[in-house]
Amino acid sequence: MATRNRKVKSVKTELLTKSREAMLSAVQIFNNPNIQFKSESFIVLSNIAWMYLLHAYYREKKIEYRYHDLVNTRKRYHRTKRGAYKYWELERCLNDNECPIDKVTSSNLRFLIGLRHEIEHQMTTKIDEYLSARFQSCCLNYNLYIKKLFDQKYAIDKHLSVSLQFSTINEEQTEKLKEFTDLPKNIATYINDFDDKLTDELYNDIRFSYRVLYVPKSANNKGQADKVIEFIPANTPEAEGLNKEYVLIKEKEKKKHLPSNIVTLMKEKGFSKFSMHKHTQLWKKMDGKNPNKNFGVSVEGAWYWYDHWLKIVEEYCLKNKSELE
User: Fold this and answer.
1) Distance (Å, rounded) from C-alpha 189 to C-alpha 198?
2) Are 261 and 118 in a shared domain?
3) Whole-number Å distance between alpha carbons of 43 and 203
4) pTM metric for this prediction
5) What's the domain count of the chain?
6) Which of 7, 21, 127, 321 has the most CB atoms in a 10 Å sphere around its CB?
7) Residue 94 belongs to what domain range?
8) What are the mean pLDDT values of the chain's consecutive 10-residue runs (325 residues total)?
């Protein structure tokens, strides 16, 4: 038994060591100005880092994380062509009932997993700026959980610092970042579809995407000039004002449709008998304005529908094609 416990501890330590190195490598590559393959490298390496972290956790808790079938109460393990065990990938680790990761952090990781599937078979361009906030959350979440599940000595924050840059970000640049015009169509579609299904509460949680508002500011007192980023406590009046303003900006980012626009779009698709009345009946039947369903949002008293709802309306029209054409 003592030998077995030493082996479990040894494997767990090796998993944690490689997990930390994978995450540190992901950050170092992303912050390296001489490397262009940033986001792709970060996604792959951070995926491995989290997978090894959860493997170490399951091993410590004596939870089987190898694929297997039960045959007459005995485990028959799945193996590769060369005979090696097949261990759970990150998504399977997150799906397990014993997974210790919270829902928001899990959503951040599932976003990155889906994005990896989109980019692994083709080259992508200019996605670093669009995704850095979600990468930042991935790093902070990782640092939190490796300390929470194991020990403070495994923390990686002492190895990391704020990345420096040679240019400022002006308002024109930030507007371009919101347009997704430079992204490959499959990537832009994936991001929009994933975000449309999130609740506003989850979307705005820093564990999903760590967004920082930068405000150019001159130092008024000695010592302030040495601090590039200043954090404002969330419960202060200053932060409350910024949060309200940012929520408004965020709502403008997501594509929205007025009910009349949806009716027009359906008519243009050939469903000439689809009317405002039909649309109202549909959203009432589906409780479409329930905030928890995240089909749309109220902005300054008017209700707007997201692309996700638009797809549901089109599916309804296709099912009732004979009545609506």
Assistant:
1) 15
2) no
3) 19
4) 0.63
5) 2
6) 127
7) 2-211
8) 59 94 91 84 94 96 93 90 93 95 93 85 66 86 93 81 50 45 68 79 76 51 48 59 51 71 91 92 91 79 85 91 88
Q: Are 160 and 267 found together in one domain?
A: no
Structure tokens belonging to residue 229: 């980023």
Q: Is residue 246 part of a domain?
A: no
For the chain, the maximum distance between any two Cα atoms, rounded to a whole number of angstroms, is 75
Helices (H) and strands (E) in the chain, counts: 13, 5
φ, ψ (nearest 5 deg) of residue 190: -60, -45
**Residues 183 and 270 both lie in one domain:** no
Spatial separation of the C-alpha atoms in residues 211 and 230, rounded to whole Å: 14
Beta-carbon contacts of residue 29 (< 8 Å; ≥ 6 apart): 35, 37, 38, 41, 42, 45
> How far is 266 from 261, CA to CA, in rounded Å?
9
Q: What is the DSSP string of 177-240?
A: HTT-TTS-HHHHHHHHHHHHTS-HHHHT-TTT------------STTGGG-S--PPPTTSHHHH
* Residue after which a domain boundary falls, among 154, 185, 211: 211
